[in-house]
Specification:
five-stranded mixed barrel
């Protein structure tokens, strides 16, 4: 039954880099050449794990469960412009790669136009989602600019999402604190 469920499950291949960051399956997306693989390399140096580079195969194994994995042909490899193809298993060791992981978060890299990412709120009051095979997945948009430490930002996005899963919403707490403060003012 397990085999048939996986073999007959709906599948889709998505362009991006798929990583395990702090135990969470994170899909890094963005236009070609924006720095997805460089971000993955930085995350690897920070002891996170590569699942797939360039092409990620997602399988819907349950009503709201999507598992991401790497096509066999690309397994263990990361392509970085200027460096070429890197064998992550040989460079970083056995623990730097993983075969599959449930998708929990999408980190989309966006290049600002005139210093601003169109449609990106500075203080988002509601969570963003993207639908993959009928499943809504939490999404965070990170502007890409010179000098920004995207690895730290991606880790912070994962940590914040974990807190939200535990019922802690920092934005809502901040708004409540402001309302309480200004509610007491004459």
């Amino acid at each position: 039954q397990y085999y048939l469920t996986r073999a007959l499950a709906p599948r889709v291949t998505v362009h991006g880099v798929y990583m395990e960051v702090m135990g969470m399956g994170v899909l890094i997306t963005g236009e070609s050449g924006i720095g997805k693989s460089e971000l993955a390399l930085e995350l690897l140096s920070r002891n996170h794990r590569l699942i797939a580079d360039d092409a990620v195969e997602f399988v819907r194994v349950g009503p709201d469960v999507i598992v991401g994995q790497c096509p066999t042909l690309l397994s263990d490899f990361l392509e970085v412009r200027g460096l070429g193809i890197l064998d992550i298993r040989l460079m970083f060791g056995e623990t730097a790669v993983r075969v599959r992981k449930n998708l929990k978060l999408i980190v989309q890299l966006e290049k600002p136009v005139g210093g601003v990412v169109p449609g990106l709120e500075r203080l988002p009051l509601t969570a963003s989602f993207e639908e993959i095979m009928g499943v809504r997945v939490r999404k965070v948009v990170l502007p890409v600019a010179a000098g920004r430490n995207l690895a730290v930002l991606a880790e912070a996005a994962v940590r914040n999402y974990v807190l939200q899963l535990r019922g802690i919403d920092s934005t809502q707490e901040f708004i409540q604190r402001q309302e309480q403060h200004f509610g007491r003012e004459p």
